[in-house]
Amino acid sequence: MKQDFIKFPLHVIVHPFDGFWDMKYEGKGKLRVAFAVLFLLVITIILQKQFAGFLVNFNDPRQLNSVSELIYIVLPFFLWCIANWSITTLMDGEGKLIEIMNATAYALIPLILIYLPMTFASRFMVQEETAFYYLLNTFATIWFIGLLFVGIMTVHQYTVAKTILTMFLTILVMLIIVFLGSLLFSMMQQIYEFIINVYREIIFRT
What we know:
Blueprint: H1 2-14, H2 16-25, H3 31-51, H4 66-90, H5 97-107, H6 109-121, H7 130-156, H8 160-205
Helix pairs in contact: 1-2, 2-7, 3-4, 3-5, 3-6, 4-5, 4-8, 5-7, 6-7, 7-8
């Protein structure tokens, strides 16, 4: 249990090629760990936006909504996984949906490891020290992107060029899904309003 939640995830982010290989072919990646990482990231982002020092935090606490933060993190995660699985299925990818979810979630770990301590450290920073806050947060993001790249490449057994192409297409498909979802929601809302207006018209005339 300790190896599932601590040792192996740390091994993955330090030795990504070996780690993601073991995840795919040795079955060491666990979906429950992936969901735990996703949950911790949500908590981390909420804490960052609410408790980061005022020198680096430009959010209005009165407008913060934890439910919105949950949606903005969890929804893109699942959109990415589904879009990547859809694209790679058509491009001879070897990764299963669960493997994509595991690889994506494990790649998020640096964000938690760096964002969380930097959030609390930022409360004691002076103006000149905020550069370290932004530097380390940027490093965490680059680390995440690098891990995601290696994870997707290993899971699907792609070349570097094909991995870049599929990641680009994945983002494109995500945008298409969001657009179609928004269009469908708008149409359903208009149909609902039309039915309500017709119902009211009938009631008023009878």
